[in-house]
Amino acid sequence: MSTSPSPTRMAQAAVDFLESLPADAGARFGFDDPARIDWAFFPREMADGAYLGMPLYAMTSDQRKLAMKLARTGLRSEAYHRVATIMSLDLVLDEREHYVRTHWRDPMRYWITIYGEPGPTGLWGWRYEGHHVSVNYTIRDGEVLSSTPLFMGASPAGIGPSAHPIIRPCGQEEDAGRALFSSLDTDQQAVALLDATAPIDTIVPNISFVPEVSEPGNPPAALTMFQEVHEAMTPEQKRNLRLVAAEPSGLGADAMSKEQVGYLHDLIAVYLDRLPEDLADRERTRLGANDWAGLHFAWAGSAERHQPHYYRIHNPDFLVEYDCVQDNATHIHAVWRNPRGDFGEDILRAHLARNH
Predict the structure, then answer these.
(1) How many domains, the chain?
(2) Number of helices (H), then strands (E), in the chain
(3) DSSP 163-223
(4) For residues 140 and 155, what is the distance between their CA atoms, to the nearest angstrom?
């Protein structure tokens, strides 16, 4: 069993939160409920869906504090501050969209859902989710099995003067990716560049697993507006952007200089360091166990600032996708996934196979 303190903190925060709710609050579901692996980073109503769990707007002030305390246990302090900023951007979007009452822009429209019975033993999980945020944890016997998918996004990407925005909740994701791509020489950039056109969203949509093969539009995007753009792409563009889970594309770390590998490590740290320190250290050790074997970096779109661009970092155990295309390249999506088993599904399947 792990001696990591984060799962203990999560369990206690989840228990405290649940005890603050009435029995019929609807925040808890069985661990085997299919909703546990059904995640989203957009208002679910946009895809004719609905959230499960307990929304912030339906909580008392005390309950909201306990809900946010639980969310904080799954995020490093700096990452939690970024999530708070992302939530506040819904107020900015609401103003820019002229306060359309049928739209879903509200920093209180974030949900906590708990699956199973939180505690030091057994299987349980939890999610904190809303527009541009999805934090998912799966825990067994006091050990975190999975902290993916972990999604953060930002729209608008920056607040303030366009040339020098002062608030950029996903600025690290952009800057670290751009620093790595800019460090590559011409030949390396040619290998890393998948296509001159960046996809409108991540190649793998918000499904519960990373397929063996994905390309724009297949699997289908949940949002019609994304799928329409995918269908308008040429077969060559789709082929260039294709993601094969077991065969990473782009420029391999073994083809990078020592300095460039340093940039790659810095970029990966942006995603790992969303987690509490103990969990980030564990993930860093896991990745480094094979000397970062097989990691590839790929780019699509323009290298110029304020132009549509996309990148991914990928090996068979690790996948990051970042996209900034929508709304004239002022709308960021950035997700970390485990190609072998988001939500701990790989470990759970192996456990079932051994015991049945």
Answers:
(1) 2
(2) 11, 15
(3) TS-SB-TTHHHHHHHHHHHHHS-HHHHHHHEEESS--SS-SS-SSSS--SEEBTTBSPPSS
(4) 35
* Peptide linkage before 276 cis (omega within 30 of 0): no
275 in a structural domain: yes
- pTM of the complete model: 0.95
Handedness of CA 244, 245, 251, 254 (dihedral sign): negative
Evaluate whether residue 86 is within a structural domain. Answer: yes
Domain that holds residue 139: 5-148
Kindly state whether residue 157 falls inside one of the protein's structural domains.
no
Collapse the DSSP code of 240 into the 3-class scheme (helix H, G, I; strand E, B; otherwise coil) and give the result.
helix
Q: Report CA torsion sign: 63, 69, 73, 79.
A: positive
Q: Long-range contacts made by residues 231-235, C-beta under 8 angstroms, separation at least 24? A: 233/197, 233/199
Please tell me the distance from the alpha carbon of residue 97 to that of residue 107, in angstroms, as a whole number: 15
Q: Is the pLDDT of residue 34 over 90?
A: yes
43 and 183 belong to one structural domain? no
| 2-33 residue pLDDT tens | 468 999 999 999 999 999 999 889 999 999 99
Do 139 and 176 reside in the same domain of the chain?
no
81 plus 191 within the same structural domain: no
Using an 8 Å Cβ cutoff, are 324 and 312 in contact?
no
Residues in the chain: 356
Q: In whole angstroms, what is the distance from residue 135 CA to residue 341 CA?
A: 15
